[in-house]
Amino acid sequence: xxxxxxxxxxxxxxxxxxxxxxxxxxxxxxxxxxxxxxxxxxxxxxxxxxxxxxxxxxxxxxxxxxxxxxxxxxxxxxxxxxxxxxxxxxxxxxxxxxxxxxxxxxxxxxxxxxxxxxxxxxxxxxxxxxxxxxxxxxxxxxxxxxxxxxxxxxxxxxxxxxxxxxxxxxxxxxxxxxxxxxxxxxxxxxxxxxxxxxxxxxxxxxxxxxxxxxxxxxxxxxxxxxxxxxxxxxxxxxxxxxxxxxxxxxxxxxxxxxxxxxxxxxxxxxxxxxxxxxxxxxxxxxxxxxxxxxxxxxxxxxxxxxxxxxxxxxxxxxxxxxxxxxxxxxxxxxxxxxxxxxxxxxxxxxxxxxxxxxxxxxxxxxxxxxxxxxxxxxxxxxxxxxxxxxxxxxxxxxxxxxxxxxxxxxxxxxxxxxxxxxxxxxxxxxxxxxxxxxxxxxxxxxxxxxxxxxxxxxxxxxxxxxxxxxxxxxxxxxxxxxxxxxxxxxxxxxxxxxxxxxxxxxxxxxxxxxxxxxxxxxxxxxxxxxxxxxxxxxxxxxxxxxxxxxxxxxxxxxxxxxxxxxxxxxxxxxxxxxxxxxxxxxxxxxxxxxxxxxxxxxxxxxxxxxxxxxxxxxxxxxxxxxxxxxxxxxxxxxxxxxxxxxxxxxxxxxxxxxxxxxxxxxxxxxxxxxxxxxxxxxx
Length: 683
What we know:
Elements: E1 4-10, E2 14-21, E3 26-33, H1 39-48, E4 57-63, H2 66-72, E5 79-84, H3 90-93, E6 120-123, E7 126-127, E8 133-135, H4 139-152, E9 157-160, H5 170-182, E10 187-190, H6 191-194, H7 200-230, E11 236-240, E12 246-248, H8 249-254, H9 262-278, E13 282-288, E14 293-299, E15 302-303, E16 305-311, E17 314-321, E18 324-326, E19 332-337, E20 340-347, H10 366-373, H11 390-405, H12 409-433, E21 443-447, H13 451-461, E22 466-469, H14 476-482, E23 486-497, H15 503-525, E24 532-541, E25 548-552, H16 558-573, E26 581-592, E27 604-605, E28 612-619, E29 624-632, E30 642-643, E31 646-649, E32 654-657, E33 661-665, E34 671-675
Parallel strand pairs: 1-4, 3-27, 4-11, 5-6, 5-9, 9-10, 13-21, 21-22, 29-31
Antiparallel strand pairs: 1-2, 2-3, 7-8, 11-12, 13-14, 14-15, 14-18, 16-17, 19-20, 22-34, 23-26, 24-25, 24-26, 28-29, 30-33, 31-32, 33-34
């Protein structure tokens, strides 16, 4: 066994690196600024700072939102579509609907499409809904379409999606083989082979998105791999998928759509591990970086996930953690709009970054406001490795906020933070209330570089029961990647009633999917261990559009499955129906367990921080600066309660404890914040 494990998470502002020594149980962590123009450059720069020999690192776990950013920024490949003749406009028409939130916006403009109409070709051939071939695929037409798209339209990738391919993938397999044979360098994605799910538009969208980012992710992973090899790395390469598992680089390059929420998924994996350790059945995790905030709910030790998500209004048929992403981070820009203060979603990012970084940024950000208020400190920013200047922060706040609003710098700074907290709290309440959940019943888990910064204020705003901050919160997503296992997911359409007399055939289909998936996983990973398997049935009442995910057991009967489904429907929506139900599809998840850090014990950090007893911090209740303690988290004592106001910090984050709040730490290094008891009207 190799001595070390490495995890790297690329954020919008910083790249987080964590090295775990499996012999000494010591964690080393590093942060380097993100390089937006060339993401692998920052990763390789960070690797150069690692003290541990790369030759002794066994596993490299990587999280990236490169694919997601390519879609959002329209920086993907030039894609062509080959589909059935007469159905060329499925992707462009979509469902002819408008997102509810945009319905009454008079200034709404549809985002640019990913595929131009002239890059779509229809060919003869037809499979019906029973999976029967009623018209052979015109192979000559497929090659003619590919020739036009590649040689005339300069397409770098082709998305193949035929009607009813979820019942029979024969035509797609033929088309893919023809394209691979005749265009060996072409990126190809096929709907039924990628997402074996009914609904033509959704499957087409998933296929197009996969094609759009495939060359981008492939080139990135190849460049990163070669760079790591040049530096002496000889271990295994993994990428986080969007549902909290790990894929090999090769698997990720072959199916990049499964990685679009790769980065945030690491944090959710770590949060899930921590929820089980702390026995927290109801947990809201927030991962707050420099650019955005990602929120996820954990219920009964299971993260809330979906099989259909949306990326910039495009549906994606892939298992994904149900993440609510908000434009709320350390780099969130504050500005005056029609005499009103707004914060985010625009971010200063890594370049130029907040004004206090001294890299040319002139706009006021959350980080600038927090620095001025003493909620973070200049002397210990990034463990003292990065200089920040309050003078620059103050100048940006005064120029953009204080002067226009005719208020002083401190009032402007606290206003920036309160606006962001209020906006974030409203979005989280909406996310929870639409599921019939009350934030007050939940524990808040805050991590990321800015999670501990805004956590205490968000905890108060949402009136939550307690706030928990994990050890090394600023790199917790990278650490969470180390707690992930090798994972593989496949789906298969069923579309049969639960009470069907052919239920034995339904069970046989689930078993066949499981065995086929195990065979494919072993082939692709070359791993020898026996994977842990679970099967989920996506079930709905007849007449419904959307489904609920219900565990499918090997000894299930039609009655036991139906009972489990109706119970879940009642719990989720508050009602059920006296209707027949059907299984839409099966999803099998395979897990190969990997050795990982044990979050149930104290993690030893290699970092040492300077200790400072006193510190000046803004008291928003009195609207004045007060003298407080500034305590490194590694100096917090077991069994002691720390009353606010005070400032807790480590090498990557700061946590302002407010008046009326009380903090403690356990033997695992987990910080818990609660409200202090009020006696005789005093804290």
